[in-house]
């Protein structure tokens, strides 16, 4: 089995475990990102962002534990596919670039190691391939995570319109309108599964709808690129520390990998978070609130409207939640992935030893 296949499978396994552990925080964060609110007119006025813990408890109270895991099934499929694809192509490119660096080193060109810009390029190419292939899955996941929130906003806007009609209506019409209001208040968000999400996206925008948010998502490729650049650079420093030039580089411990993954993801998330918010807004249901500030025709329109109606604060909604979720998820992913790779290498080595022993006995 090639190193690319091993790393691809290990990346998929690590991604699934990290996703299951941190998914409730991801659901809350997606809702924070897609929540529209007008910018504050005066310093200190208006409502502040609700804490992630409060939103978690509120979500459990209103939607039950299942609400925390809305869209988990397609998310796990997406995670396994995206991590598998990413690590597979990343490892192929990494092997080629490392071989080129070693060959150049033997000719006296460079020190035989891969530089920071090369790591950045490798991660960017692997990330772009991943995005193009898996974007439809993440569109569905975002829809499923924000469905209940969107439905509630639509019901609220309908109630507001009815209340305005009641205030202007004649006495004979008031009772009829009040009956409609009672029925509306008793309505609850409809059940929403993967098939419904697929039908809704296709009905709204056709096939193109499954690639909504592609432009900011492709730009977001710089997130894992920055993450892997930081990770590989720090890992290189740690592996070289205490090892002489003639000695092989030491393997990193699980805790070292965990901490390096956390540091790398923290740096990448802080830099690229506004793009993540724009992507989530584009992929979520556009009818939230049913007003001009809530409907986006594309990434540029989304950015302009967010600046106009929400201010620059809107680009950082839920960032605290995202930092906790993504840093912890990345740390778990890196640690589990590396341990799975070590396990695969060990199993391959043992199988080869057993084959050699068997052949000698014969």
Automatic annotation (TrEMBL):
Renumbered ranges of Solcar repeats: 2-96, 114-237, 252-343
A Pfam family this chain is assigned to: Mito_carr
Membrane topology reported for the UniProt record: Multi-pass membrane protein
Keywords of this entry: Membrane, Repeat, Transmembrane, Transmembrane helix, Transport
A biological-process GO annotation: transmembrane transport
Major subcellular site: membrane
Family: Belongs to the mitochondrial carrier (TC 2.A.29) family.
Protein name: Peroxisomal nicotinamide adenine dinucleotide carrier
Protein species of origin: Panicum hallii var. hallii
């Amino acid at each position: 089995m090639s190193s690319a296949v091993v790393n691809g499978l290990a990346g998929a396994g690590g991604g699934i475990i990290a996703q299951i552990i941190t998914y409730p925080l991801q659901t809350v964060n997606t809702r924070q990102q897609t929540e529209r609110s007008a910018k504050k007119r005066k310093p200190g006025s208006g409502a502040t962002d609700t804490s992630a813990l409060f939103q978690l408890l509120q979500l459990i109270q209103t939607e039950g534990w299942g609400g925390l895991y809305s869209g988990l099934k397609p998310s796990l499929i997406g995670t396994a596919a995206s991590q598998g694809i990413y690590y597979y192509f990343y490892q192929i490119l990494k092997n080629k670039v490392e071989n080129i660096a070693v060959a150049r080193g033997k000719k006296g060109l460079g020190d035989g190691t891969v530089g920071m810009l090369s790591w950045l390029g490798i991660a960017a190419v692997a990330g772009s391939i991943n995005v193009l292939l898996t974007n439809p899955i993440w569109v569905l996941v975002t829809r499923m995570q924000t469905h209940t929130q969107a439905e509630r906003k639509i019901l609220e806007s309908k109630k507001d319109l009815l209340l305005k009609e009641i205030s202007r209506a004649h006495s004979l019409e008031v009772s009829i309108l009040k009956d409609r209001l009672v029925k509306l208040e008793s309505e609850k968000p409809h059940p929403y599964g993967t098939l419904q999400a697929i039908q809704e996206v296709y009905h709204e925008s056709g096939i193109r709808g499954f690639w909504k948010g592609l432009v900011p998502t492709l730009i977001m490729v710089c997130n894992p690129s920055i993450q892997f650049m930081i990770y590989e650079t720090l890992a290189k420093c740690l592996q070289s520390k205490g090892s002489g030039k003639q000695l092989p580089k030491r393997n990193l411990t699980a805790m070292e990998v965990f901490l390096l993954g956390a540091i790398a993801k923290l740096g990448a998330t802080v830099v690229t978070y506004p793009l993540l918010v724009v992507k989530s807004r584009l992929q979520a249901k556009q009818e939230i609130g049913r007003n001009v500030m809530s409907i986006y025709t594309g990434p540029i329109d989304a950015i302009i409207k967010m600046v106009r109606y929400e201010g620059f604060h809107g680009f950082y909604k839920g960032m605290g939640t995202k930092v906790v979720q993504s840093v912890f998820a990345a740390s778990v992913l890196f640690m589990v992935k590396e341990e799975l790779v070590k396990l695969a290498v060990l199993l391959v080595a043992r199988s080869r030893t057993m084959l050699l022993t068997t052949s000698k006995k014969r």
